[in-house]
Automatic annotation (TrEMBL):
Source organism superkingdom: Bacteria
Domain Insertion element IS402-like: 7-77
InterPro entries linked: IS402-like_dom, Transposase_6_like
Designated name of the protein: Insertion element IS402-like domain-containing protein
């Protein structure tokens, strides 16, 4: 695949504070693995269908699983959204509309309104 996704140096610098400390054996390349995780999730792929450029699919899955269970990705999203909120205010409209399927098929019967 020629359209592989790679995190930039700036993106990695913003994410690094949220990485857990490495104990013992150093982790494989964080940029490669995180880029692979994002690529798989963004494209709705099975882990085994990840392009080889991201490394073994087992590594991608294992990192995703461990870091998900440890709350690493949640902390990343919360931390990044907090940093974004400090820079500007974003308003979200929470309006919720629901129309019943019969709403469009209601017909006024002649004479029902007193005509």
């Amino acid at each position: 695949m020629s359209n592989l996704y790679w995190l930039t140096d700036e993106q990695m610098a913003r994410l690094e504070p949220y990485f857990p400390k490495s104990h013992g054996k150093p982790r494989v390349d964080d940029r490669r693995v995180l880029s692979g995780i994002i690529f798989v999730n963004r494209n709705g792929l099975r882990w085994r269908d990840a392009p080889a450029a991201y490394g073994p699919h087992k590594t991608l899955y294992n990192r995703w699983k461990r870091w998900s269970e440890a709350g690493v990705f949640v902390r990343m999203m919360e931390g990044l959204s907090g940093a974004q909120a400090e820079r500007r205010t974003v308003m979200i409209d929470a309006t919720y509309l629901k129309a019943h399927r019969t709403a469009s098929s209601l017909r006024v019967k002649k004479g029902a309104s007193g005509d």
